[in-house]
Amino acid sequence: MADTTAETVTITVDGKQVQARAGELLIAACEDAGVYIPRFCYHPRMKPVGMCRMCLVEVKGPRGFSLTPACYVPVAEGMEVQTRSDKVKKAQDGVLEFLLVNHPLDCPVCDKGGECPLQDFSYNFGRDQSRMEFPRRVFDGEGVKGDVDFGPTLMLNRQRCILCTRCVRFMRDVEG
To answer: What is the DSSP string of 40-95?
Structure first.
């Protein structure tokens, strides 16, 4: 008979104990527990890379809580996680501000009108405009406004790209 106790672990997310599958990524375990953690580069069908850093959470270790990318860390028995602390909010705000430094438009004036995760996260987890007051990068010459056609399933809009590599990894790892 199989030992079912080894298949789940108990973790604490924002003060609430939840069950998670052993070895499951922290971001998925939190989502299963009803706690959404923002992300750009994470996708459940791809290997985690932790590139965008939007999913930073605080995980308790031997020296106290420290920021860790939730998309890269597997859950462990007794793990304590804070997803809404001031430190996490400040980190998410900083990540968004960094991503928006070279983005062509501030999110409130973007023409995507609510169809963009960057815009949604800017409203919910960061500032509504950048503090930077210098010209931003603009791509021209490759299709309409810098678009690059990668085939029938993927079009790269370099004006909107935040360099998370999710599209490239998805094409390579999932689409083939």
So the answer is: SS--TTS-----S-TTEEEEEETTEEEEEETTT-B--TT-EEESSSHHHHHHHHHH
